[in-house]
């Protein structure tokens, strides 16, 4: 395993850095509330069908992965096919492994008697956020490398229709899109067994499972297409207008598709993909307008810190949260002690939100130190 430390910053697209940074920032906030039961409703995922602002965070990160691929594929032209494939598969394996180890970490837990016991391999979750990022990155990179971004986008769109058909064909009659009996759960249980899956309401079901990764590839290829379009056409009002029009058309398509294929983040339905890509196109256009046309840059740097080391800061946030939950003070986790002592006194909901913001700012400080030292960690 190797992590490259770059001591000089490369030429960057400010709006894309800010877009990535906003995504990571809110990813941390929604993942680390002081108390999940008392989080404000917009900071919760939709319980099943439907959509909340929180549901936009992960697909936006995948969209940003697609944006970043533009720079990687530009370097691919200078490499042999073997070198390109080596880079793609090495990065995929590393990100996937980091995600897997994060769920296993810290490899021990407190048992009912207050003693440390090993976390057994047979109960370790295999798929997850970083794992989906790795698989989508690999699929999108290979498609773009071998077919070009236009064909890659068309193939991933075809994947949305294929996924719709798979859920319908292999789901139990009348419950294709319900928690139990859907094709996503069936494949994961058959492939990995229930002990390697996330438990939702006591049912083995992984929202980042293998089959539901198929439609998520389109979030990455769409991010590539949007970023490529901006770079090739230039940052003009005509370019932004076209990006906004695409976003608005996709919004209409998403809600029309929702009538027959419900928007569902946990199943990552095709209508969910179209909806999130639509919103991301609109948000990216607005960011380019504000940053490059209005020259409003005073607030940029805060999010750029996150955007320059996105995967590292996200992984850092998860590891810190795990460690705070693991270490105990008088039999209670440090995570709970800090929340109840410092933040809960101001109110259950406000305290939970302020805890998440404080945790996010702690991660920002780590990113700030790296940026000031011109260190950019590429996983």
From TrEMBL:
Keywords associated with the record: Membrane, Transmembrane, Transmembrane helix
Parts forming coiled coils: none
Lineage: superkingdom: Bacteria
InterPro entries referenced in this protein's UniProt entry, alphabetically: HGSNAT_cat (IPR012429)
Residues covered by the Heparan-alpha-glucosaminide N-acetyltransferase catalytic domain: 12-235
Transmembrane domains' residue ranges: 56-76, 88-106, 126-146, 153-171, 209-230, 242-261, 267-291, 311-329, 349-370
Protein name: DUF5009 domain-containing protein
Source species: Rhodocytophaga aerolata
């Amino acid at each position: 395993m190797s992590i490259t430390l770059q001591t000089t910053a490369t030429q960057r697209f400010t709006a894309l850095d800010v877009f990535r940074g906003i995504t990571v920032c809110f990813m941390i906030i929604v993942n680390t509330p002081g108390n999940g039961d008392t989080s404000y409703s917009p900071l919760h995922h939709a319980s099943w069908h439907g959509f909340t602002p929180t549901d936009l965070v992960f697909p936006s990160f995948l969209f940003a992965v697609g944006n970043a691929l533009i720079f990687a594929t530009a370097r691919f032209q200078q490499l042999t096919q073997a070198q390109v494939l080596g880079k793609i598969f090495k990065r995929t394996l590393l990100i996937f492994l980091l995600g897997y180890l994060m769920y296993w970490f810290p490899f021990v837990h407190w048992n009912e008697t207050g003693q440390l016991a090993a976390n057994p391999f047979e109960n370790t979750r295999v798929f997850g956020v970083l794992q989906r990022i790795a698989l989508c990155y690999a699929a999108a990179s290979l498609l773009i490398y071998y077919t070009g971004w236009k064909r890659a986008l068309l193939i991933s769109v075809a994947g949305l229709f294929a996924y719709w058909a798979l859920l319908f064909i292999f789901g139990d009659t009348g419950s294709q899109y319900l928690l139990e009996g859907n094709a996503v759960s069936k494949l994961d249980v058959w492939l990995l067994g229930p002990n390697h899956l996330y438990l939702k309401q006591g049912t083995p079901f992984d929202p980042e499972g293998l089959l539901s990764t198929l439609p998520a590839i389109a979030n990455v290829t769409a991010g590539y297409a949007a970023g490529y379009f901006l770079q090739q056409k230039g940052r003009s009002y005509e370019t932004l207008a076209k990006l906004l029009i695409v976003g608005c058309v996709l919004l209409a398509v998403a809600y029309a598709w929702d009538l027959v294929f419900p928007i569902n983040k946990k199943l990552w339905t095709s209508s969910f993909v179209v909806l999130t890509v639509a919103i991301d196109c609109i948000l990216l256009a607005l960011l380019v307008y504000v940053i490059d046309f209005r020259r409003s840059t005073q607030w940029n740097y805060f999010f750029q810190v996150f955007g320059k080391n996105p995967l590292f800061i996200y992984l850092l946030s998860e590891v810190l949260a795990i460690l705070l939950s693991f270490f105990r003070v008088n039999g209670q986790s440090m995570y709970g002690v800090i929340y109840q002592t410092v933040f809960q006194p101001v109110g259950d909901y406000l305290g939970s939100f302020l805890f998440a913001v404080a945790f996010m700012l702690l991660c920002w400080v780590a990113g700030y130190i790296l940026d000031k030292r011109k260190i950019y960690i590429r996983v």
